[in-house]
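#lab-general

N.A. 3:47 PM
ok so I finally got the sequence cleaned up, no stray characters, all 71 residues accounted for. can someone with queue access submit it? mine expired

B.Y. 3:52 PM
send it over

N.A. 3:53 PM
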Amino acid sequence: RPGAGEALCRLFPDQKLSRRTSDFDLVIASDPNSVDAFLNRSAARRATGDAAGADADIAKAAELAPDNPVV
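B.Y. 4:20 PM
back already:
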């Protein structure tokens, strides 16, 4: 989703974005089918410059919910 990373940058300073990514890691570990967690971690990763990780999370979200229009 274009713009999600920019929104996160405005909401959280850089040091907190890496913490948010870690928070989403924990959610995914406890619920590996959480589409929202993958989408949110993707936005956090993109905002911190991890484009490859962000793309991987989007791909996983699309795999989990192929009919979801947000993905």
